[in-house]
Specification:
Blueprint: E1 2-6, H1 18-27, E2 32-40, E3 50-51, H2 55-68, E4 74-82, H3 88-97, E5 102-106, H4 119-122, H5 126-142, E6 149-150, H6 173-186, E7 189-193, H7 208-216, E8 222-225, H8 238-248, E9 252-257, E10 260-265
Helix pairs in contact: 5-6, 7-8
Bound molecules: zinc ion (2 copies).
């Protein structure tokens, strides 16, 4: 059992220390975790910084945590990089400056607009709210390679004020497929983000059918992450994520060491 998406107090919205995350993971019976704090640099509109303040300290703390827990839990040095088109070069520089085990590339902003807030949806109907987001992912990842998996692909659902329907994952299907094909061609993976299970749709991010499309298009690299910001959600619904992966045709999940994938049979 693995959890490859966890935020500690190095994230502005993180509520658990690295030690607390590790101790909770052990209690929950996890064998391996990746701590992946937020690095969203150069946010527009003078928004409060949403990033690790001192990367050297963060990385050193990851290594000492890894060493301290080595007999009980595998701890991987990770980061969740929030991409924008004017930060890609700096993202690459930061990723290459440290020996990360695992990097999640996430898209949290659409041309500077944040779907976490209602205003994003006010100027877009339901379809456009999704397709603008997917097109942004496609555009950002086209020339960017310093990552292992794409984070929470359809996470817009978490914040959407539009009523959820069972066909919502079909919105923008062609663009989603382009994203998935691009990931396959680049040798990159997709994350199953179990925070999606908190939503009333009861689906992970992305929807299990999207996982299936990824598999059918040749996708092999898959990580499972809770996106927990507090101890309550470490390892959240991992068993359900495994069910979705079996449904989608996967027989392996992926762990990473120094950004190299290792496949673990499920
Ligand atoms: Zn994220
Ligand atoms: Zn996250």
């Amino acid at each position: 059992m693995l959890d490859y998406h966890l935020h500690s107090t190095y994230s502005p919205d993180g509520e658990m220390t690295m030690d607390e995350a590790c101790n909770r993971a052990i209690e929950a019976g996890l064998k391996e975790i990746a701590i992946t704090d937020h690095m969203d640099i150069d946010l527009p509109d003078n928004k409060a910084a949403f990033q690790i303040e001192d990367l050297d300290q963060y990385f050193n703390d990851l290594i000492s945590t890894k060493n301290r827990f080595q007999d009980k839990l595998k701890v991987k040095a990770g980061i969740e990089f929030g991409l924008q088109d004017w930060t890609l070069q700096e993202a690459s520089r930061i990723i290459n400056a440290y020996s990360w085990d695992f990097v999640i590339a996430s898209v949290h902003l659409v041309n500077g607009e944040d779907p976490y807030y209602r205003y994003y949806f006010n100027s877009r109907d339901k379809i456009k709210s999704y397709t603008d987001y997917y097109e942004t992912i496609l555009m950002l990842l086209k020339d960017y390679n310093d990552f292992n998996v794409l984070g929470h692909l359809d996470y817009l659902r978490r914040y959407s004020p539009y009523e959820y329907s069972l066909e919502d994952h079909l919105i923008g299907k062609e663009i989603i497929e382009e994203i998935l094909i691009m990931l396959v061609q680049k040798g990159k993976g997709l994350e199953v983000n179990t925070a999606g299970f908190k939503h009333y749709s009861g689906q992970p991010h992305p929807h299990p059918d999207i996982l299936k499309w990824f598999r059918e298009l040749g996708g092999e690299i898959i990580t499972i992450g809770s996106d927990a910001h507090s101890v309550n959600y470490v390892g959240y619904e991992t068993a359900r994520a495994l069910e979705c992966l079996r449904y989608a045709g996967f027989s392996y999940v992926t762990s990473f060491t120094e950004m190299k994938p290792v496949f673990i049979k499920i």
